[in-house]
Fold this sequence. Notes:
By secondary structure, the chain is mainly alpha-helical. The chain contains five helices and no strands.
Amino acid sequence: QTEKYFKHIEKEIREDFEFKDDILQPCKEFIDQYEKIIFLHVPSALIAINTWFVMLISSIIWLIRRHHVSALIAKAAAPIGIMMTIIAIITGMIWGQQMWGTYWAWDPRLTSFFILLMFYIGYQTLWSAVEKPDNAAELTSILCVVGTVFAILSR
């Protein structure tokens, strides 16, 4: 008797979902194609922002304690942040084209993420341009502290 009852409930649930499936099918097909990119876009954006915060903490440690490992951590994190920021911007552009009809809008969040990319590239360039490692660590640490404003705005 219990089995009969559960089969009846299962039948009702299936009929209910089939009815909703018919109504939502056109929307579902469109969304299914483009929602999968979010599974790459969101984590890459979070990694890009959090990588900047790793660089910030390492830079603050360098400015306060002059610990060489902290400067190396920040230097090593920058290429990861650059790649994740580029991936986030590209996947966001692909998704934005399908959802909003444009690849880029000068929205404050999008613009601040682009500026964050410029800070990442400037950080790497500054490390390469300065000859003495201690001077490079000092200048890049200051750049990292200033660039934190855009990392916060990107959230």
